[in-house]
Amino acid sequence: MKSKLLKVSLVGRTNAGKSTLINSIVGEKISIQNKKINTTQDTIIGIRNIKESQLLFYDTPGSNFLKNLDSQSKKLKKNLWNGIDESDLILYLIDASSINTKFLFEQLEKINETKKKIIVAFNKTDLILNKKLLPIINKISNQFKVESFFTISAKKNIGIDDILKFLKKYTYPGKWEYLNDEITNKDDKFFLSELLRETLLTYLHKEIPYNISIRTTNFKELSKSDIKIKQKILINEKRYKKIILGKKGSMIKKIREECQKKIKSVFKKKIHLYIELIT
Predict the structure, then answer these.
(1) Is the pLDDT assigned to residue 128 strictly greater than 80?
(2) How many angstroms separate the CA atoms of 94 and 207, rounded?
(3) Which of 197, 222, 227, 269 has the fewest beta carbons under 10 Å from its own?
(4) Gap between the Cα atoms of 41 and 59, Å rounded
């Protein structure tokens, strides 16, 4: 049987549920989830193989920032458009429980300029009645060419199979870009750094998590049941160090313990996590 391929970019505003959806499609957590803006900063690819077909899903940053001109937004814009440029088809995800119609149509107008096929998925539909979406679906259909509409709940894994079945029809003959057992383009060290960043986003406020870099410098299996991990938090401004440390080191202790739990839940082994702050 000849191999087939399809590249899909997941696009939508912050908190639409893109990372939850890609984790659901892949079957494992590969992209971090947090309610703060643009927790996804790198383009992470999720891989789902169905028989002879390989579907690649590009998890892009939230599209809220498209009109901003600051340097952080410029980087995010580049990552977003790179993901769209690489893809054959755009899956535009909408938080059905909180629809900003003006923003939605501005975004669809911009994305429509790419001339790529678009499908629209309303996420979190377990929180509302589907019939309430009909006027919006009709309005979108009248203004844009959309291949299909879906109502899903990424969190509860409802409607995901319908999307995959539909996307499979758009696959085309092509060599797989990843091996059969690969689920993402990122390695373990990147994923571990993302788990620490997710934890920092939970415990720290405002701009701090967006002004630090994280490096996983060591990943060593001590035995069949123990893993040693070393991570560095590179801080842009000295004033943030005191906040991250907390009173008598209480904040960094919370962060380390929470991150260690998350890593343990993934690897199912005892984790020895060491975090160093560098200014």
Answers:
(1) yes
(2) 26
(3) 222
(4) 9
Nearest to 209 by CA among 197, 196, 217: 197
Q: Which of 97, 79, 70 is nearest to 11 (CA)?
A: 79
pLDDT digits (tens, 9 = 90+) for 101-113: 998 999 899 888 8
Q: What is the pLDDT of residues 35-81, one digit of tens each?
A: 544 444 567 899 999 999 999 999 887 654 444 434 454 555 566 77
Nearest to 252 by CA among 212, 196, 188: 196
Burial of 251 (0-12, 13-18, 19+ CB in 10 A): middle
pLDDT number for residue 132: 86
The pLDDT assigned to 222 comes to 93
Q: Please tell me the distance from the alpha carbon of residue 166 to that of residue 279, in angstroms, as a whole number.
A: 49
3-state DSSP of the chain: CCCEEEEEEEECCCCCCHHHHHHHHHCCCCCCCCCCCCCCCCCEEEEEEECCEEEEEEECCCHHHHHCCCHHHHHHHHHHHHHHHHCCEEEEEEECCCCCHHHHHHHHHHHHCCCCEEEEEEECHHHCCHHHHHHHHHHHHHHCCCCEEEECECCCCECHHHHHHHHHCCCEECCCCCCCCCCECCCHHHHHHHHHHHHHHHHCCCCHHHHEEEEEEEEEECCCCEEEEEEEEEECCHHHHHHHHCHHHHHHHHHHHHHHHHHHHHHCCEEEEEEEEEC
pTM for this entry: 0.81
Distance CA 200, CA 254 (A): 10
